[in-house]
Amino acid sequence: MTTEMFILATLDGLSAAALLFMVALGLTLIFGVMGILNVAHGSLYAIGGYVAATLGLAIDKFGLSPALYLPALFLAAILIGPLLGTLLEVGLLRRILGKEHVLQLLVTFAAFMILEDVQRLVWGTQPYFVSNVMNQFGNTDVLGITYTNYQMIVLPVVAAVAYYGLRYFLTKTWLGREVIAMTFHREVATAMGVNAKLVSLLTFVIGAGLGTLGGALASPSTALLPGVGADMIVQSFAVIAIAGLGQLGGAALAACLIGLSRSFAVYLMPELAVLTPYIIMVLVLLVRPEGLFAATSMRRI
Amino acid sequence: MFIRLVTVALIVLTIIISHSFPWLKTPVIFSLCNGLAVLGVIVLIRAGQVSFGHAMYSCAAGYMVVFLARAYQLDGLLLIGLATSVATVFSALLGLFIVRYRGIFFGMLNLAFSMVLYSIISKFTTITGGTDGLSFTRPPLAGFVLERDAFETALLYVVLACALICGLLAQRYFESAPGQSLAAIKTNETRLEYLGISAKHVFWMGYLFSGFLAGLGGSLFAIAQGLVTPEAGYWVRSGEFVFIAILGGSGHAIGAYLGAFIFEFVRFYAAALLTGAWQITLGTVLIVIIFLAPEGLVGMLTRFRLPARR
């Protein structure tokens, strides 16, 4: 492996990790509060990407100002995340809180299947690739490698802002602390006067928004195809499983681990690239079944 | 009693349908094969666990059938036996690791392993034929070299016998001490351990049995189709198994076959009408079942029985 390849793989890995981290953050936040792994989160990512790509194409078509490219990505996430999030939470998730874990998982899996087909019906099976934002930001030379500013600077910055923003919200604001209380014990939190329904809905909308934002920001640098949602849910699950369910900070490290190892695998062993998240997840869980950063949980008899 | 009646009716119906409408023989065989794999998923659902990767055992058994059939001139029944044993051993080994996990982790780890297998099969084109799969010539069955039509009829009875035996076996298992302990993993695992029973061991046995059933279903499917593709191990297949298991219900082994028949025939007739919206249909039906009839078809049957008892 040459130095150029090494740098290229590192940059690829870090930008992928930034996206992965945002999506996983949403997934783990929802899990923390509702105790449900939302399989449909992968579809939120994919639909966020498709909507962003459609907006990007629309800007070109109507000859609008190129300055709108970047805001359009955020607009896509803000439009579709809360909309689908509310729909899913009110229509399905809040109705299955008391059900068995198997059934909860299956309901979100069913929602995922429905949304996968919806994508195919709306956007077809042709790959979408709208890279106008990425070209707009230009390239920079890093140690002899030309790399896009968008992937190198914009993505990690947005991911960091999302993480610190979320942490500020959770630890410093009243509503955020109610969310934290809910993750510890839903019933006790309700007894203390937390509006559980509202907090659940809010958390879900924020989580869904992070998912769609991840998709929207990924759309300039990756081609959107049917199946990206399935790929993303597996990767982001691997991230939160490695970190330990509900661990926000650990997810950043786990995302880097998966992003980097996948990008290195692309250069070194392309056949194994798809498998790296699975392999790392299996290896980590083999040693630490609860994940790397999980706190030990109490056993209820 | 009512369920026994349904079982007999189903067997008779299977035989009548496939003799009076020969073109339905293949879907009947396929749904019985699927039913076997679904029964494997149901064993795990009784323990409160759902596997999103059980198609890997069907797929592994299917490829084993192809490899053996292409390399040696073996009898069909021997192929089924060997391939099923390989899948069972595979599940026993993987089970050693997987049975340590519950809930989401269990489901996703099964998915992870099935995806690893799927990618390996799709990538190593020279050995596995890649995404086109591998085909093989029709093997002799129990020593007889049969024409296509006779072969299908014979295979139908083999599959039917396997399904019946496995259904009875599963019912026996559910009612036995290990089967009851398996169900206790769902209700309260800690209490099970307090009784001095190793939950891990109980679950491992269940996992082994479910791997055996999925492998048997997969090897029969491969023989019936004469072709195996990596699709047989894709997560969509595993998802279908779980779907059928929920549709049929986990209360009784018959649920697997009832669900599989309905699934296969709805797909047979409705797939053309619903092209492009097939997954929407599956997803919607799944949600409706979970909300309105969480016990599945078996639950409806047992509820039907109750008034007679009063």
* CATH fold field value of chain B: ABC transporter involved in vitamin B12 uptake, BtuC
Mean pLDDT of chain A: 86
CATH topology of chain A: ABC transporter involved in vitamin B12 uptake, BtuC
Q: Main sheet of chain B?
A: 2 strands, antiparallel
Structural class of chain A: mainly alpha
Number of helices of chain A: 12
What does this structure look like?
The complex is a heterodimer of chains A (301) and B (310). Chain A has 301 residues and is mainly α. Helix content of chain A is 72%, strand content 3%. Chain A is built from twelve helices and two strands. Chain A has helices at residues 3-34, 41-61, 69-91, 101-123, 132-137, 149-172, 174-184, 186-191, 196-218, 228-243, 248-268, 276-287; strands spanning 139-142, 145-148. In chain A, helix 1 (3-34) runs parallel beside helix 6 (149-172), helix 1 (3-34) packs antiparallel against helix 9 and helix 7 crosses helix 9. Chain A is globular and about 60 Å long. Chain A starts with a helix and ends in a 14-residue tail after the last helix. The model of chain A has no long low-confidence stretch (mean pLDDT 86). Chain B is mainly alpha-helical and 310 residues long. The two termini of chain B are 14 Å apart. The model of chain B has no long low-confidence stretch (mean pLDDT 88). In chain B, helix 7 (148-175) packs antiparallel against helix 9 (199-225) and helix 8 (177-194) runs antiparallel to helix 9. Chain B has a single domain (2-309), classed as ABC transporter involved in vitamin B12 uptake, BtuC (Orthogonal Bundle), CATH 1.10.3470. Chain B contains 13 helices and two strands. Chains A and B meet through helix 4, helix 10 and helix 12 of A and helix 5, helix 8, helix 10 and helix 12 of B.
